């Protein structure tokens, strides 16, 4: 009696050959990447942040807005550690929801004041 060969079945692709499984996985990955639409620049958060900065700069020049307000806006948008552009820059503003911003603020709070710390 010969020992039956048991073939390993790749779960993610359903293939028994590892070479064929890799090929199927690569094809699937490419399909998923092609299906993922890139956000048009005009709908990126970064686009609107730049517009806000330009408008604020113009308002300061026209003395319609204070220099301090302009600087605080830049600070909130461009902070390297936690700035809004860093978090939401390439995201589609049409898909952003209040919960996205709230989650961001919660993560910042957790980083700044770990749970269990008295503030």
Structural class: mainly alpha
User: What is the makeup of the main sheet?
Assistant: none
Distance between the termini: 74 Å
- Segments where pLDDT lies below 50 for 5+ residues? none
User: What is the chains' assembly state?
Assistant: single chain
Helices and strands in order, then pairings?
Layout: H1 18-35, H2 45-61, H3 67-78, H4 84-88, H5 98-112
Structure in words:
By secondary structure, the chain is mainly alpha-helical. 56% of the residues lie in helices and 0% in strands. It has 5 helices and no strands. It is elongated. The chain starts with 17 loop residues before the first helix and ends in a 7-residue tail after the last helix. The model has no long low-confidence stretch (mean pLDDT 82).
């Amino acid at each position: 009696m010969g020992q039956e060969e048991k073939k390993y079945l790749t779960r993610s692709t359903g293939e028994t050959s590892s070479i064929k499984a890799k090929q199927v996985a690569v094809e699937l990955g490419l399909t998923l990447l092609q299906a993922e639409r890139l956000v048009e620049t005009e709908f990126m958060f970064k686009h609107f942040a730049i517009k806000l900065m330009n408008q604020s700069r113009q308002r300061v020049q026209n003395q319609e807005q204070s220099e301090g307000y302009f600087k605080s806006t830049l600070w909130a948008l461009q902070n390297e550690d936690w700035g809004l552009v860093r978090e939401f820059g390439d995201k589609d503003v049409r898909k952003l929801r209040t919960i996205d911003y709230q989650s961001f603020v919660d993560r910042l709070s957790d980083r700044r004041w770990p749970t269990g710390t008295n503030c």
